[in-house]
Write a structure and sequence with these properties.
The structure is a single chain. By secondary structure, the protein is α/β, with parallel strands linked by helices. It has 2 domains: 153 residues, no CATH class; 280 residues, Purple Acid Phosphatase, chain A, domain 2. The chain is 30% helix and 18% strand. Helix 1 runs antiparallel to helix 2. The two termini are 44 Å apart.
């Protein structure tokens, strides 16, 4: 990741710059002043206009959101802005790699070498509008504009849904399941999380445990082929050929190029063979079943017959306990969440058949009190993305929240979160959940007895 691309002023000025330049292309075509000999050749004016309109909408929405949150770290949930981040990074490193220096910090691995941005009172780099995105980085910015247009249309033309598994995969009665969410940033700290997961797997291998590692979604910025190959697969803690299950839930960022590389690159890696090319999966032993769901193919919903599929899994194994996994939240203590997802599953929760539900999306580590018939719900989206801490250690929790990992990372003036993951050990009908951070410190446990 590049520091400047993660800066909100930089991204917004790049969005406006791109919109204006694409608008000029469309207007030039109307006046027959441009032949577009280059990467925009063959892209219709209508396709370009769709991107212009979307950039305009996203710019206004994100600018308003930024005023409310006053956040510096830029990881937008707007598909078009995430696409712009991917294309800025790709084109800049391909066109002018000499413009960057390796300077890893808490939020990035590179920065612009000749960056002369002023520094604010709190030590952050600050940019004036438009002062940095024009030809400083890109030797031919048309590659950026065309890449954004092409990626936007991939987003609108989704890959075919992978289908639903007919039978669950058998796991041991004492299986170990490792969960990590929103991990695919490739940052050094995310790699540290991967190394700590690896240490946990080594300990399990020594005890001959049946083990499975599950990613709860999101490879940044948009799940492009290069991002899976650079930020995700090289650091995945399961080694090729090992008898350890690997699974990855589909997240919203995985769908920002239509999910084509989620299926074509991530799930095509042999380590994910047990997932059989599907974004939905089921694991089962004598006492537990683990259902991995896709809440991203249709954003924040269970699409393509998943609700009925869950019902069939419950009906086919009425005596086992059930754990659900998803990228999106059922609810949240800190932001609006679950308005679309809960109506899909309210009747399932009311039946009292869901014992636990783990999710990501928010870059936090949270545990909730029992609610709506679910005994344990937990957000574990703190695997690989820096996030400002909302509250300090010692402050009261919001209603319904039982645990919030608020340990501040490092000595920086900026209150970044501490990354981590979860280890679930099954023992008969009992389940123990251990929360471990990027340093290997176990900071919380939850027990879900029979």
């Amino acid at each position: 990741m590049i520091a400047e691309v993660l800066n909100d002023d930089f991204l917004l000025s790049a969005a406006e710059d791109t919109r204006l330049e694409l608008k000029g292309v469309v207007e030039g075509r109307k006046r027959r002043e441009s032949r577009d000999e280059g990467p925009l050749d063959g892209i219709s004016s209508q396709e370009i206009q769709e991107v212009i309109d979307e950039l305009n909408r996203a710019y206004d929405e994100f600018d308003q959101e930024r005023e409310r949150k006053s956040a510096w770290m830029c990881m937008p949930r707007s598909p078009i802005l995430a696409i712009l981040q991917t294309e800025l990074t790709r084109v800049a490193l391909e066109q002018k790699p000499e413009a960057f220096v390796e300077e890893p910090d808490d939020v990035a691995e590179r920065r612009i070498a000749d960056d002369r941005a002023r520094v604010s009172d709190d030590g952050r780099r600050a940019f004036g509008k438009f002062e940095i995105t024009r030809p400083k980085i890109l030797s031919d910015p048309r590659w950026l504009w065309s890449g954004v247009v092409i990626a936007w249309h991939k987003f609108n033309k989704k890959a075919q849904f992978g289908g639903l598994p007919e039978q669950p995969l058998a796991i041991a009665d004492d299986a170990r399941i490792v969960l990590v969410g929103d991990w695919g940033s490739g940052l050094k700290r995310a790699q540290d999380v991967g190394n700590q997961i690896r240490a946990t797997l080594n300990e399990g291998l020594a005890k001959r445990r049946d083990q499975h590692v599950i990613h709860l979604g999101d490879v940044y910025y948009t799940g492009s082929k290069g991002e899976y190959e650079e930020n995700f697969l090289p650091y995945w803690p399961v080694k090729p050929g090992e008898d350890i299950g690997s699974f990855t839930v589909c997240g919203n960022h995985d769908m920002y190029r239509g999910g084509h590389e989620y299926y074509g690159t991530a799930l095509a890696d042999p380590r994910f063979d047990r997932q059989a090319g599907k974004s939905v999966f089921a694991l089962r032993n004598s006492n537990w079943q683990v259902l991995g769901l896709d809440t991203a193919y249709e954003d924040k919903r269970l699409s393509n017959g998943q609700v009925e599929w869950i019902e069939r899994q419950l009906d086919s194994a009425p005596d086992v306990r059930t754990m659900l996994l998803s990228h999106h939240q059922l609810w949240s203590a800190y932001e609006p969440a679950g308005e679309l997802l809960r109506p899909d599953v309210d009747h399932i929760l009311a039946a009292g058949r869901v014992d636990a539900w783990f999710w990501g999306h928010e870059h936090r580590c949270l545990v909730y009190e029992p609610r709506d018939g679910v005994k344990l719900t937990s957000c574990v989206g703190h695997g690989g993305v820096p996030e400002y801490l909302i509250a300090s250690e010692g402050e009261p929790y919001p209603d319904g929240l039982r645990y919030d990992y608020r340990k501040r990372h490092g000595e920086s003036i900026e209150p970044w979160n501490t990354f981590g993951f979860v280890v679930i050990d099954l023992a008969g009908r009992d389940m123990r959940v251990r929360y471990i951070d990027e340093t290997g410190t176990e900071h919380h446990t939850e027990d879900l007895p029979a």
